[in-house]
Amino acid sequence: MKVNWLSKNTFLRFPKKYWVSLLALSLCGCSFTFDEQKKVMPVKETKSTLLADLSIKPITVTPTKLKPLELSEIRNGYAQLVDKLDDKGLSRHLDFRLADVEMLLAEEKQSTGDTFSDTTGYEAAIKAYEKVLASYPDDPTKEAMMYQLSRAYDLNAQGEKSVETLRALLTIFPESIHAPEAWFRLGEVFYSEGNYSEAAVVYNRVIEYGKDNPFYVMSSYMQGWAYYNVEDYDAALVAFDNMLSASFLYLELEEIEQEQSVNLTLLSKGQQRLVKDSLRLMASLFSYRGNGKAVVAFYESKSAAPYRHLVFDELAQQHLDNDRFIDASEAYLAFASAYPMHREAVSFYVKHIDAFILGDFPSEVLDAKAGFVAAFGKEQGVFDELCHQCKENAKPYLYDYLQELAQTEHSLAQRLTAPNRRTSLPEILQGYDDASLNEQANLAFDKAARFYTEFINTFPDDKLRPQVEFNLAESYFESKQYDKAIFHYERFAYDFPTHPMAGDGAYTALLSYINLLASHNEKSNDERHALLEQQRKSQLRFIDTFEGDPRAVKVTQTVMQAYFEEGDFEHALKFSEWLLSPPETQHKAVALSIQHSAELVEAHALFGLARFKSAEQAYANILSRMATQDTNVNALTRNYAISIYKQAEQAVGQGDLASAIEHLNRIIDKTPDVDVRVNAQYDAANYLIAASRFDEAQALLDDFAIRFAGHELAKTIDEKRLYVYEETEQWQAAADILKAVWQENKQSQTGQEALYQSAVYYENAGNRSASLSAYRTYAHTYPEPFDLATEARFTLSEFYSQSKESNKRRYWLDKLIKSHDNAGEKATLRSQTLAAMAAMVFADDAKYVFEQQKLTQPLKQSLTKKRRALVKAVDAHNKVLAYGVRDYVTIANHQLGGLYRRLARDLMASERPAELNSLELEQYNLLLEEQAYPFEEQAIQVYEINIKRSWDGVFDKWVKESFSELAELYPNRYRKNEIREEISIEHF
Fold first, then answer.
1. What phi and psi values does residue 426 have, to the nearest 5 degrees?
2. Domain positions in the chain
3. CA-to-CA distance for 346 and 395, rounded, in angstroms?
4. CATH code matching the domain that covers 1-62+69-177, chosen among 1.10.10.60, 1.10.10.10, 1.25.40.10, 3.40.190.10
5. Which of 78, 179, 270, 865 is the most interior residue, by most CB within 10 Å?
6. Rounded Cα distance, 500 and 937, in Å
7. pLDDT by residue (tens digit) across 273-290?
8. CA–CA distance from 41 to each of 44, 48, 764 (Å)?
9. In this structure, what DSSP letter does residue 675 have?
10. Collapsing DSSP states into helix, strand and coil, what is residue 508?
11. pTM of the model as a whole
């Protein structure tokens, strides 16, 4: 491709006006002096008082403008001066200026269209530059002069000389500021000659100077064409991309940031042409290298390229121009997928969809729209990350696509689950089995739900939100996802309660709970309980929000029944009252059967809440309207009786026994045939007993014993009657009951205790024979507990003492002694005392025998018997002493001393032998005294032991008697008069 450089000013180092001005200034400063230019300042208008008074206007001076010199005049002036100057320095300067003016003059003529020859127009400039270079070979301006000369050659169609000059310039000045242009012009020469490989290499020398050099863009462009011509398409793409990158490099950064991408309109028309041509070639190359994916791969390793969407767009447009709609769609999609955050991503995705529409691919359109939602939606896409404008761009499409997709999928799912689906489905689905169709239906329901959900989340405040929410709930319900259906039905119904379908939504949520519970029987108790709690809340919310809905009655009944079955009587009562006194709009909706159910719950709930008086009235009202043959009468009558019974219990709890008895008597009177009557009569008797109303209690107990003889409670009636008999001192009756208890429970402790108590009560009743029999049976049968057995033996001894049956008495006294002696740790102070008492009786008996034994002749024989009797009596008294019971120790001790003294007396009073003379008799008496004396001494010792007890504070009758005996036996010590001294306070 050849560029006509004669038509461009691209290679001017400075604009023409700049050169003219520069030359003019140089001439004015070096060659001659013009008239001094005066600066005229405009006179500002003032409003002084004097001028105003004189009505004189201020003078305005308009400055004059000098006409600029023509280039030809300047050129002529320079030419004249050069010949006249002797100053070499000034001459050199003017030669340089003259050469530049000649170049400017040639360009001016070329640009203005004046008579101009390609071969002669720049001759003067060429000669001037050649002269300067020849005259001043080492001048510092040589670099600039060589550059201008090469330009002049090129503009004068002397290409070879131009190239030759440029080569020389690059050789001498490789780092010249004109090097980029020099290399570029060399590249142009190679390109025009068809040497594309060399041209590409030379263009690359320009590119190496960076994007800031003015030849970068054109060099990249031409390099791209050079590579293209040698079929190095990879390098061509890189070159064209470099050209694009540089073309947009100098755009304002703010514009790029605002757009996130660049637009061709931001470039000049010339730049636009080059960019469009580059895009065309790049798109053409990419179309054969993988289409949009190739473009994505190309830019993967590159930094930000705000223009790359132009490549995708050009590629897609070429496909569209060729009716290659699928390829066009793929190109747009490739960009939108690779750069979803790009400002053009949304529009490119829409173009992707439009390409399918243009190509008439309806089956692809729906999937493409679903893809758009997936890419730019809130749920799966990047919606939340998009810039504000991108979101605004995406919203209209999301709005339409989400509705269309959701409705399409929902409709398909419904057709797949319809009873007649085999006849309504497309032919392609006719061959599916039921399992496959159901699977497809579930997929469609899931997709519909996903699109509905995304619409709601994206457009939460849109006017269609309620309907979409309802549709979403429907899709979940129809796909049996009841938990999700519940959530969205409730959100629809209670967030938009005024919506015409709100009641339906709320009620369907309740149906969903039923289905959910039915399908989750395997859930744990905790999970199921939590689900039931949620269901209850939903039911209550329905009643509160939609109380005018006819279905509210049924829901209320369900809630009432549920609360009642759970034992939550407070809430059950509340909703029973709602049904019995419904809102005005629901009066006709509450059927008689529902009212009856509510009345029953009300009565039962009142009962459960311990509001028994109200419950009694509620039951009474129900019973008053029921036929006697109704199967529920007995149960309700029983509850009625229990309500009264519970009032009695409450009265007892409050300490009001009189009221409790009254309530229980009402049960006996009003519900005599109800089983509660048994407990009522039984408790009434108990409360009468507690109230000491024994006559009334006895009447109820006697009636109970006859009327309910087979009842379990009848077993305790005798116990109650026993208490009444005891309190009213009906001892005989009480004893008979206890005797009967013993006869039925001889082996138990209860029977044992009953026998003993019966003996006591028979004794109280004066029935000696029955009491004696009971005591005797007890004493023979129950040695334990030891204390009661001991008392029984003692009582028997007393009975026989009273009846003067001494042998029988002594039998039981002996039992008292032996049982105590063998009791060990069980022995008690009582048993010890009774044993001592019994032993004393036996000691008295031995004393009596001893005393009755007379000393007769022959004395030896009678004395032996007497001594034996003494030993037995002493042993008997010692046994008493061994028990250590004070009441019996002193008498036993005293009597023991009396036994010894009695023996001494009896010895002295014994019968004398008849054949003794007086002397023998006297000796015999002395012998008796010797025998009697030890016994008197023994008696004194025993008495002294007894009197010493007085030192411990024991001074009873027997201690006193011992003192008396000692006074007779030992008068010197014990028969002394008591000395008393009165002490008065005056003594102190």
1. -60, 155
2. 1-62+69-177, 855-974
3. 10
4. 1.25.40.10
5. 78
6. 131
7. 999 999 999 999 999 989
8. 9, 20, 156
9. T
10. helix
11. 0.59
